[in-house]
Amino acid sequence: MAKAKVNDLINMGFAAEQFGGAPGFDAEEVGGYVHDILDEVEVAVRLSVTDTVYDAATINAADKNNKRNYSLIKSAERYYCAAQLWQNRIQFIDQSAMVQRSNDVPVNPQKQYADLESKYIERAEKQLSALSGNTVEGGSSFGMVESGSFSRAG
Questions:
Q1: How far apart are the first and last CA of the chain?
Q2: Where in the sequence is the domain holding 96, given as residue range(s)?
């Protein structure tokens, strides 16, 4: 189960009306619009940080690093989900092809939404790179250093 919750995305300002009144938008169970996206995001994040790191990261962990990892993973999931929601919003607008023209609404909101999508992906990647202390531009990188008096025989 993802560490980010549907309510986290609603608190970021997303609403069913932005997606044509998507049924089950705020449902916390399988089949809910946002819930299903969070399930996909969880799989991607688990692949980035490993199941061991993901499972150890809890809000109530005794280890400070695991608490920190929980916060970073939850933020990354929120940002990846928000990026997907912006992509879905672009697709919804393209399908409906009814863009209002007024002083309040940009003539081309898809560009604005695509920029927001990119921003959230970048934020998610920064959260994941912080798990390992890396600040690699454009992606995450994880590694391991092994030292000791015995070398690994190959």
A1: 38
A2: 6-131
